[in-house]
Amino acid sequence: MFKWQGAAGVCINEKKEILMVLQAAPDEEKKWTVPSGTVEEGETFEECCIREFSEETGFTVGTTENIHTKSGVISEHGISYHVEYFLVDIISGEITLQDPDEFIHEIAWKSLEEIAELPLAYPEDIHILEQVLKNRN
């Protein structure tokens, strides 16, 4: 079984909106998600989160806390996965489409209400985002 490990960054602005990316590989349906990606060899989950966030959004960020861990198995594809989610703060930069894989099609701040109506790459993540926003009030 192939073991995939990744990291995701959740960034919330002063309006309580979350930075989301619309992504798809060629021939895939475009879906929204928080910036995320695969841990590279020798990289920590935090380093992966910071790198992927920058690659996908143009922002330099710092992680503030680990907010969720998601693990499981996708048996039909023979994959086990482990993803660490981090709350991040923007240090510098501006929204820039610069993804080296060219899978990112749009970057936008979205309210929880808007996110609930979007086609999500990982629909179960809505609960993670709800919890993070609830804990920030």
From TrEMBL:
Family statement? Belongs to the Nudix hydrolase family.
Q: Which organism is it from?
A: Psychrobacillus lasiicapitis
Listed GO molecular functions? hydrolase activity
Q: Per its UniProt entry, which superkingdom is the organism in?
A: Bacteria
Under PROSITE patterns, the record lists: NUDIX, NUDIX_BOX
Record bears the keyword Protease: no
Q: What is this protein called?
A: NUDIX hydrolase
Specify the Nudix hydrolase domain's residue ranges.
3-134
Q: What keyword terms does UniProt attach to this protein?
A: Hydrolase
Q: What high-level taxonomic lineage is stated for the organism?
A: Bacteria, Bacillati, Bacillota, Bacilli, Bacillales
Q: Which InterPro entries match?
A: Nudix_hydrolase (IPR020476), NUDIX_hydrolase-like_dom_sf (IPR015797), NUDIX_hydrolase_CS (IPR020084), NUDIX_hydrolase_dom (IPR000086)
Which cofactors are named for this entry? Mg(2+)
In its keyword annotation, does this UniProt entry include Hydrolase?
Answer: yes
| A Pfam family recorded for this sequence | NUDIX
